[in-house]
Amino acid sequence: MIKTFASGILVPKDYIWPVGKDGYLQPATTLVVDAHREGLIVYALGFASDVFASYKYSYDLTVEYLHFVDNSKFSVDGVVTEFPGSASNAITCLAQNPNLSPKVTNTLVISHSGASIDYPGCTNLAYKKAINDGADIIDCNVQMTKDGVAFCLESTDLLGKTNAAMAFMDRSITIPGIQPKSGVFTFDVT
Questions:
Q1: What whole-number distance in Å separates Cα of residue 171 and Cα of residue 186?
Q2: How far apart are the first and last CA of the chain?
Q3: What is the CB neighbour count within 10 angstroms for residue 93?
Q4: What pTM did the predictor assign?
Q5: Count of CB atoms situated within 10 Å of the CB of 45
């Protein structure tokens, strides 16, 4: 059914390889195999070296990436990460194996908000670092101002992520359909 309107899916990595309440990796689901059978591309998200993953990975993000792109059952088509250098290095190292399937060497590294572990997300520094670290794609959430200026920022509310909000505090409003607290929204500034 998804194939009728999309070419791929982006899913949390736990939908592919769940972690039990005890912190141990559970058996992989059939999500990737099923999606590939339907002709869908699968991207996994939720990789972060500052968040506990599973005892299986021994706190090693490289091992975790490789588990998703090189195992006997499936390979995701890409990983979405705030740590593009780790993912890129893991996949590049793996690609040196002459017995590796071409599928693994084509795994995309998608950087969420740039290299936001090194620089504030959604900034030129974070995007440049992600590109230098080997990201294939930069995931940039685009917001639009009232007068049509597009810029990258994860949230429509300027209060949480920028220092620019102070210049627009007189435009602080509450929009319950967006969030319960007041904010300075990108679509209300010029």
A1: 10
A2: 41
A3: 11
A4: 0.74
A5: 20
